[in-house]
Structures are given as C-alpha cells and as structure tokens.
Design a protein that fits this description.
With 328 residues, the chain is α+β, with helices and mostly antiparallel strands. The protein has a single domain, classed as Beta-lactamase (3-Layer(aba) Sandwich), CATH 3.40.710. 39% of the residues lie in helices and 20% in strands. Strands 1, 2, 3, 7, 8, 9, 10 and 11 form an 8-stranded antiparallel sheet that branches. Strands 4-6-5 form a 3-stranded antiparallel sheet. β1 (17-23) and β2 (26-39) form a beta hairpin. α5 crosses α6 (96-108) and α9 packs across α10.
C-alpha cells in the first residue's frame, strides 16, 4: 500500500507536534511542527502532522549536492580527505579553520577564490567565510575536473546541477523533470520536496552501502565541527551520538537526521521557520526513538534549549505509527 499517497486521508491524519514558549506558566508563543520517519524506499514508519508537507529542503540537501564531487573522482584526485568532504556538506560559521578547509579545496583544484559566487557575509571579509562556501568550492572543483564552465556553475542548466538533480531523482524514484528547484540564499538551487522525501534521502545516506554515502557519513561523523561549528546543533549532536547519527539542518525550520546502519531518516519542518522549535522537537523525537543516550540528551538540552531565566520550551506530541488496513 502506498502510504505517501494516502497520508492526507482521514485515516492517516495525525496531530502536528506543538512547541510552546512559556514565560513563567503563561504560553507566549506556539510553533506547529511536522515530522516523519521513513526508510530508504520512502515507506513511512512514523509521523506527526502531515508527512507529505511540501517545502524547500534548503541546506539539508548538501550531502547530496556533493555526490558528483565524490563520484567523479574529484575528491580523490585533489586529496580532499574527510575534512574536505565534511566542509563541502557544511553550513559552517566562518571561522579561520572553516575558511582554511574551503581554501584548500580550491587551491588543490587550481581554482581562484574569486570564482566563488556565494556572497561575502555581513561582518566578514571573504566569500570563504560564507556558510555555504564548502559546497560552492566542491561545485567549482568538480567543474574544473570535468572541464565544465566555472562562470555559471549555479545555473540550473549547468552540468553539475543537472547531475545533482539526476542523482536525487534516482534516489527518490522520480523522473528528473518532476523535481522543482528554486534559488537558495547562497545562490545555489535547492529543491521543493515532501517531508517524507527528505526523510527518504537520509534513509539512503545512512543505510546504503554505496561508497559515496559511506564516505560522506564517515566525514561528517569524523569532523562534526566542520559541518557546523562549536555550539551549533548539528555539531554538538553528532559529537555526542557515538557515530550513530548524521544531522544536517536547513533554514526556515528544516532538520534532517539519519540513523547510521538502519537506513532510517527523520525529517522535521517547523511551519513558522523557528530554529529553537526544530531543535526542541529534534531532541524530543530522538528521545522517543531511543537514538540518543539520556546523558547526551540532557547535555544537549542544557546547551541548546536554555533561553533565559523563567522562560522554557515545552514540546507536546509524538510521532505516531502509520495504521494499515490490517489494523482495522
């Protein structure tokens, strides 16, 4: 039975998760959140809210946008190592160590820094410090390796963007022409997907034996500080997950997480785009799924969810199992 196509029917509706911001005992703000856990075949295992909620995947797409960088042999030829792969997947905070790893990718590819088309972040001095510079550097390195233009590498019709879409469509079992793309804030295309499709992608990432996925997972787990940065959710979660979890967030309330070896992905979307709400729900669901130890959970809650004295976040709701015809 195709759960995805039927998930909005009355039988398969479930309540979204709510995140309450409480000042004292009074609710000040409410965030509505959708979440879904799926395997690599797109079979929905558990969900809350609307599993096929449609939105942009934003930066959670990055581990899949670097597939041509690895499959073309570029990463190996320029000796990127795991650090180079990790920074290519990253939404980093622009430290010197982050910028240095991006520079290495370009230097080893004989590509000038001025070819980067991501903007210079406010308060910084170089495109190398943009949070998406690693992804852009991998685009440029791959294009240089394959003899493609470096000038229009962000164009949807550029060969590298066509190849990225082909790989993503293949993973989702869709014709490439069905994918809908739009410009992300860094200038690169991002995709408009169902939440279950995002979870499916992370099911592939964390459960496939394909060498590219294994390399990406090893790099992200091995160098979590390059994937985001000290104090950032993805970095702190992966540091405490004992090599069992891949985590990559995106703007506007997107969070994708995968369980290594199990081929299960978890995708979260906060309707109003709140970062605090997506982090609170992610930790709440990791506890429900038993993907994280109580000690690690407490450390993350203390680090990520403390707002100010007298102000707290409360998560209401859980993932529910999909009912099948056999349950009736």
């Amino acid at each position: 039975m195709d759960f995805t196509n039927n998930i909005t029917s009355t039988r398969y509706k479930t309540k979204p998760i709510l995140v309450l911001l409480k000042r004292g005992s009074i609710v000040e703000s409410i965030h509505k959140v959708h979440a879904v856990a799926s395997d690599s075949k797109g079979r929905i295992l558990m969900f809350a809210g609307t599993a096929n909620y449609e939105t942009f995947i934003r930066s959670s797409l990055k581990p899949f946008q670097i597939l041509p960088f690895i499959s073309s042999g570029t990463a190996e030829k320029i000796h990127s190592g795991e650090k180079g792969i990790a920074i290519s997947c990253s939404s980093h905070i622009g430290t010197n160590s982050h910028a240095r790893e991006v520079f290495k990718l370009l230097w080893n590819s004989f590509v000038d820094v001025n070819n980067l088309q991501c903007p210079i972040p406010e308060g910084y001095v170089s495109q190398l410090q943009h949070n998406c510079s690693g992804k852009h550097a991998s685009f440029l390195a791959t294009s240089k390796m394959l003899g493609w233009s470096l000038e229009n590498y962000l164009d949807a019709k550029h060969p590298i963007q066509i190849e990225i879409n082909r790989r993503v469509a293949e993973l989702l079992g869709l014709p490439t022409e069905e994918l809908v793309a739009a410009r992300d804030d860094c200038g690169a295309p991002t995709l408009f997907l169902q939440l279950v499709q995002m979870a499916q992608l992370y099911g592939h990432l964390c459960g496939s034996k394909q060498p590219e996925f294994e390399k990406i997972c090893r790099a992200m787990i091995g160098y979590p500080e390059l994937v985001a940065g000290k104090g950032r959710f993805d970095t702190e979660l992966m540091k405490r997950a004992h090599g069992q979890i891949i985590s990559k967030g995106g703007a506007e309330g997107i969070q994708c997480i995968g369980r290594i070896g199990e081929g299960i992905g978890l995708a979260i979307k906060v309707e109003d785009g709140s970062r605090r709400a997506k982090q609170a729900v992610a930790l709440h669901l990791l506890q429900q799924l038993d993907w994280i130890t109580p000690t690690a959970l407490q450390e993350l809650e203390d680090q990520m969810l403390l707002i100010s004295p007298g102000v707290q976040l409360e998560v209401i709701g859980n993932l529910g199992f999909v009912e099948t015809q056999a349950d009736h």
